[in-house]
Specification:
single chain, 9-stranded mixed sheet, globular
């Protein structure tokens, strides 16, 4: 099935609807419709496997009874049903069943943006072309999800919630989670790290249905914004988690760090926390006086350390600014190095998050319970086919991590790798912004021609983005 074609047709239909105001709303509309179709198809399977199964939904709002008939209700009748019956019922499901509570949370901030019932029926009929009870159609789920994510990357600020799959995959493989270990992403966005963890454990560790149950119970996430939360939850369902209620729609920074006690501690933290933004007024008061700041990435870094068990390990994404920032940042980095072994910092090439974030980024790997004695740095080189940075159309790939993987367990200094002692770091007042000794002078004395070529390349990329924005407008 040509999934991209189907999503494109749906988007074209939605563009005709005056209620849809951009990619973000289009995506949310597609996701909640897909969710209800997937849920209904899963119920068909459960009904065959368990004759006593009963739905958490009243009969009148089950997909099969209002949406599955292509010649069913449409126009004003359909619009009225969705707005006055379907959504109010989903938002107030009166039951203590886990699946019902999960659905109620999923739809707590969801909306029907479409104002034409006729166009809505066209969208529903497109979705009905997929039968999620069939193996061949289930194989298309990843294609659907990746297509939606590509749209999300163009949906204004929502692009911040997407972390390149090769990057999440590398972090998960490096941390090597085990069955029974709790893995948590406190700022999970669309769930990329969690999905990679599920896939990795299934491929390398899972042997029994009991293993699968433990894996599903041990994967946890939290996301503050509703659309990424909706996508993360739906993605987990597509990957076999029947009730992904371990994904919470919440703000991890809005609670005092002291309220996170031993029961909240986890074995593994993976995250690409939001950076470059400021928290809401007063949120910094939830943290110790010496570590209070408005910078989200710094508060999350402190929280990550707090949430890890002794012996727990983390693989996270942070911008360059954290490495060299001073003041509160210095105190947080000192705390990190005193309580954790920050053993590796991978310095990523420019443009890994292009075009959503222009800052340079790093991968930090640390283990809690022992102080840092030295830090290994590895500068991931830019591929030879790129002049200055990754672009929207040429992102980072799995293959580009291969040399780093080979080096990881047999560490030696080379043209990409070097180490810095704790003493050197303390002398620099915990500035972690280290460059390879051999390359520092080279970078300082770059040829003017090379500098100009880099500027021209970036200007071309900016102009491409401007033209794309003009088309969207």
């Amino acid at each position: 099935m040509p999934i991209e074609g189907m999503i494109k047709r749906i988007r074209n239909v939605m563009r005709q609807d005056e209620g849809i105001g951009g990619d973000a709303q289009r995506i949310e509309q597609i996701v909640w419709l897909l969710f209800l179709k997937i849920f209904d198809d899963q119920e068909k399977i459960r009904e065959l496997e368990n004759l006593s199964y009963s739905s958490p939904f009243p009969e009148n709002i089950r997909w099969r009874n209002w949406a599955s008939d292509k010649e069913g209700i449409t126009g004003e009748e359909l619009l009225s049903f969705v707005n006055t019956t379907l959504f109010p019922t989903l938002k107030k499901l009166e039951t203590e069943r886990e699946d019902a509570l999960f659905v109620r949370e999923m739809f707590s901030e969801a909306y029907n943006y479409m104002k034409s019932g006729t166009l809505l029926r066209q969208v529903i009929n497109e979705i009905n072309e997929i039968d999620f009870t069939k193996n061949k159609d289930r194989h298309h789920l990843n294609d659907i999800y990746e297509t939606i994510l590509k749209g999300l990357q163009n949906a204004g600020s929502y692009g911040e919630f997407y972390t390149p799959r090769p990057l999440t995959k590398f972090i998960i493989e490096t941390l090597d989670p085990k069955i029974g270990e709790t893995l948590f992403d406190p700022a999970c966005g669309t769930g990329g790290f969690l999905i990679n963890a599920l896939e990795y454990l299934k491929e390398t560790k899972e042997k029994t249905t009991e293993d699968r149950k433990k894996i599903h119970e041990s994967i946890r996430g939290c996301e503050i914004k509703h659309l990424p939360y909706l996508l993360a939850s739906t993605n987990l369902i597509l990957h076999g988690v029947e009730i992904p209620d371990n994904i919470k729609h919440d703000d991890m920074l809005a609670k005092s760090y002291q309220e996170y006690t031993a029961k909240d501690r986890v074995d593994i933290i993976v995250a690409n926390p939001p950076f470059g933004g400021a928290v809401k007024d007063g949120v910094e008061q939830n943290f110790p006086a010496d570590f209070r700041t408005k910078a989200t990435e710094l508060l999350f870094l402190f929280l990550f350390v707090h949430l890890l068990r002794d012996g727990g390990r983390a693989g996270i994404v942070l911008p360059d600014g954290v490495l060299f920032a001073e003041g509160v940042a210095t105190r947080i980095k000192k705390h990190l190095l005193e309580t954790c072994n920050l053993h590796t910092i991978v310095r990523l090439p420019q443009g890994v998050f292009s075009p959503y974030a222009g800052v340079n980024t790093n991968l930090l790997f640390f283990t809690k319970g022992e102080p840092t004695k030295e830090i290994w740095y590895y500068k991931l080189p830019l591929p030879k086919d790129l002049k200055t940075q990754y672009t929207k159309n040429r992102g980072i790939t799995d293959e580009e991590f291969t040399p780093l993987k080979k080096w990881w367990n047999d560490r030696k200094e080379n043209e990409y790798a070097w180490k810095v002692s704790r003493e050197e770091i303390e002398k620099k007042d915990f500035n972690l912004d280290s460059k390879h000794p051999a390359s520092a002078q080279t970078e300082i004395h770059r040829e003017p021609k090379e500098i100009l070529e880099g500027i021209e390349e970036r200007e071309k990329e900016i102009m491409k983005l401007v033209e794309e924005l003009k088309k969207e407008i």
